[in-house]
Structure formats: C-alpha cells, structure tokens
Amino acid sequence: MNWLRQHAAAAMDALRHLLRSPGNFILNVLVVSIALALPFAGLSALENVRPISQQMSVEPEISIFMQLDASRETVQTMGKTIDKALKDTGTQGRVEFVPKEKAFDALKNKTGLADVLATLGANPLPDSYVLRLPGFGNAMDAGRVDTIASRLKDAPGVDAVQIDSEWVKRLAALLRILRLVLLFLGVTLGAVVIAVVFNTIRLQVMTQREEIEVSRLLGATNSFIHRPFYYTGALLGLCAGLVALGLVIAAQRPLNTAILDFARLYASEFQLALPSAMAVTLLLAVSALLGLLGAMLSVRRHLARAH
Amino acid sequence: MIEFSRVSKQYSRDTYALRDVSLSVQKGELVFLAGPSGAGKSTLLKMIAAVERPTAGTLTVNGQDIGNIKPSGIPWLRRNLGLIFQHQRLLEDRNLLANVMLPLIVTGASRGDAEKRTRAALDKVGLLDKALCEPLELSGGEQQRVAIARAIVNRPQIILADEPTANLDRANANKVLAALKSFHSVGVTCLISTHDEQTLTGAERIVYLDRGRMVEGWHNADANPEVTA
Predict the structure, then answer these.
(1) Would you say B171 and B206 are in contact if contact means Cβ atoms under 8 Å apart?
(2) What structural domains does chain A harbor?
(3) Rounded Cα gap, residues A120 and B174, in angstroms
(4) Measured between CB atoms, does B113 come within 8 Å of chain A?
(5) Taking CB atoms and an 8 Å cutoff, what residues of chain A touch B102?
(6) Quick check: A224 contacting B, CB < 8 Å?
(7) B87 CB within 8 Å of a chain A CB
(8) The predicted structure's pLDDT at residue B227
(9) A with B: how many residue pairs have Cβ under 8 Å apart?
C-alpha cells in the first residue's frame, strides 16, 4: 500500500512539474513524436505489405515451353519427365498440357489481335506445360520450386522454363532488406528519443536542484527522488507515441486514396490498413519504455553527480 | 545519543574544518554551539546529519557510526533528525502546507495523516492561518518558524539548527528561540549553532569552537548570566 502510495505521489509530482511548464513539455513531445513517426510509418507499411509476399504464391506455377520444332513424341515424353521429376522430389502437382494450337486460339481471343496474328501465316507459339504446385505455404517455400524447374530445364526438347513465383521471391527479399533498413532506422531514432528525454530530464534535474537537495536532507531515499523523473520520461515517451501514431494514421488517409488509384491499375483493391490494437499497444509500450530508459540514464548520471 | 570522539574534518593538507573535537550530547539536552564564523559550527552539525563525514576520529549518532554509515542508511538516519538551516531552504513554488509536509511525504505517510500532522506543526509555531501562503509572502522570522515546523513535523529525536536567528531582528529571534526551547522542554535533543552572544542568555550548555577546535565546553544547569556580559 505504502509502495503504491509512493508511486502515486511520484506520478502526481511528475504531472505537477509538467503542468507548471506545459509549453516545454509539448515541444519535447513534438520532437520525440517526429522521431517516432518515421519508424512507426515504416512498420505500418511493412506489416501491410508482408501478407502479399505470404499469400500471393500459395500455388506457384512453372511454365515449360517446348522448342518450336520439337516433335509430338518429344512433347509427349516431356509429360512423363514432369511426372518423374515430381515423384523424385516428393512433390504433389497438377500438370496441364497446352498445345500450341490452343495457345494460339487463346491469344487471338484474348488480345483481339486476330487480324494481326492472321498475317503471320504460321503459329509462332510452342507447345507448353503448366505445372501447378499446391501446398506451398509462402514465399520462403518458393525456393523449393527451383529444384524442380532446373531438372525440367535440362530435359530434351525444352526451350525455356519460367517460374511465376520469381517476383514473389524478389518481393520477399526486398522486404527483408526493408525490414533491416527499418530496424536500423528504428534503432537510430530510438537513440534520438533517448537523447531528447535524457536532455529534458537533465534540465529538469537542474531546475529542481534545490528541491532535490532539501528532500535528501529531510530523509528522502534515492528511489523517492528518482521516481518522479522516471514517470516524466515514461509520460513523455507515451504522449509522443500517441502523437506519432496519430500522425501516421492521419497521413494514411490521403495516402490510401493514392494507393487505391494505383492498385486498381492492377485490378487490386489494396490499401494500407490501420494498425491493430495489439500493434498500437506495443508501439505505445515501446515509446514509454524509450522515455523511461532516457530518464533512467539521465537521472543516474546527473543525480549521482549531484550527490 | 551523540558522541564525538577526537573527530577531525580535513579538506586539504592545511585546511581543517574541525580538529580533534570530543563531545558528548545526552538525550534531551539543549546545546548551543558558539563561536565566530568559520569556527566549524556548521560542519559539526552537518556531520551529525551525515552531510559530511569525519576524516579522523569517531562520531556516533543514535549508535550509528557516521564514518561508516552506508549511503542507503543515511535517509533513515535523517528521518530521526529535524534540520533547520540559516537560510530556511523553503521551496518557493509550494505553499507552507506542502513545505512542512515534505518530511512526512518522503517517509510515505498517507496524505490525510500528513496533512493533519502538518497543520498541528504549523499551529505550534503560530502559522496555521497562513498554511496556504507561499514562503515569499512571509517575513524572515515567519519563514524561520515554518522551517521549525518542517523540522518538528516528523517528531524527530534530535533538532539541529544552524544559525536559526542569524538573519532575524531581536523580537523574531526570541520567538524562534522560544519555539526551539519549547521542543526541548518535551524531551527533544537540540543543538543550536549561533555567533550571536545574546542568543546564549540562560543557556544550559554552551560549546565554544574556534578555527575548528573546541576551546571551551561550558555546562551549568542553572544557566550562566555572565556569558552574555
């Protein structure tokens, strides 16, 4: 009970000092929130893009294009080669043979280029196979497709093998890089937050020097003296976190309009989603912890020196 | 209760604040520390509160060796002391109630209990009606009485007053001394430093210091009117 009372008194003391100079506090909150907004925005964007790399390649496809002059027999043998490759790698797959005539008809019907294609005289398309591989959970699994594709590439009569999960792999790799960049950015800006809070608390220790000295002489313990500064730091971090989240959410609305316009060009309705309640809680906790850490470092340094 | 045994405080090779002081103060005594400025009176009081530590000799307060007291033990020692400073050291941004309540708040007393005891302490020094005033609204004498209220609010065993009347006129100085003597009369041990000879009138015990040395220890239960002569 006494412990709780001491914490309540420290929190009230911190509030009392903040309310005495609200202008300074607000300015400090703004500085810290700007530092926090950047990694928050990056995290939010990454969290929105991550599912794309995880979901878009649930069924990777391998397209095997035969040579134009490949005999019908060679083309038929390729079907067996594919079955064998799947069996050898223990992979389930669906194979679809697309004869060159069918491909040519589809091209004519889909593109509306029938007149242009008619001028070619002969069918320029090869026979092909489309191999679908269900049960591949995410982009990380896409690497397994390479083994099958490389075996098929060396088969007789094959001109080219195309893996449609390549772009997903690239996206996953890009996201890994972005995540590292964001981590670096987060650490750097986290250090900025700690530095700002450190300096804020340093100034507060200086302005409250007399109060601290008198309290010590009256029997205050170090914990009693340090505690209000810890609350100030944590409160500064928390308020800055709230402002930073507000900034990110506010920026998301106009950004989503632009993203939606862009996504619709690719027949998608993709938009950035608001951070989840869990993410918001976590980000606010991190902000408060950064503030607390800055305050602890500052108090330990400056009060130890004063003592 | 307080035992100085050949205590010295040396700041540098040739600078001594106290030199070879031996002094014993019993529970309930009222001791005046007299001497000119720089005699070592403040240092002696600071040592009792563990603000300074002896560089030689032994000092015990309530059985605790000040020379070897751990930093974590100092707050607990000070909670049994009532400190009064020459320049009051009141917090100017807080009213009298909050200033006097501070020693109770640092011990974790509940707000209700602390306020009740604070009002009682302010009443004892005759300033209850000004509880919500800020220190700068008061005269020097009143500020010193607030400092006394702050010193006694946690019912200390020992009161240490460093030149409590130094900046006061005679009337206010007498009021402050009367307040301190009233606490002594209920069994509180008091050590009061002063360089004002008039303050020593009727003193039971006077310890004279000069350039860090104890030059005379004078003790008379009937008081000695010659001292002020």
Answers:
(1) no
(2) 2-55+170-306 (no CATH), 61-164 (3.30.70.3040)
(3) 121
(4) no
(5) 214-215, 218
(6) yes
(7) no
(8) 38
(9) 47
* CA-closest candidate to residue B148, choices B172, B180, B126: B180
ipTM: 0.87
Q: Distance (Å, rounded) from C-alpha B180 to C-alpha B162?
A: 12
- Return the minimum-mean-pLDDT range out of A131-145, B4-18, B151-165, B166-180: A131-145
How far apart, in whole angstroms, are the C-alpha atoms of residue A298 and residue A224? 16
- Residue A218 identity: L
Q: Are the C-beta atoms of residues B184 and B30 closer than 8 Å to each other? A: yes
Query: pLDDT-based confidence at A141, cuts 50/70/90?
Result: low
Task: Considering only residues B117 and B225, tell me which one the structure prediction assigns the higher pLDDT.
Answer: B117
Task: Please give, rounded to a whole number of angstroms, the shortest distance from the CA of B212 to a CA of chain A.
Answer: 23
The reported pTM is 0.73
The amino acid occupying position B200 is: L
The answer to whether residue A219 neighbours chain B at the CB level (below 8 Å) is yes
Of A213, A219, A222, the CB nearest to B107: A219
CA-CA distance, A19 to A5, in Å (whole number)?
Answer: 21
Written out in words, the top-level CATH class of the domain with range B2-80+156-228 is alpha beta
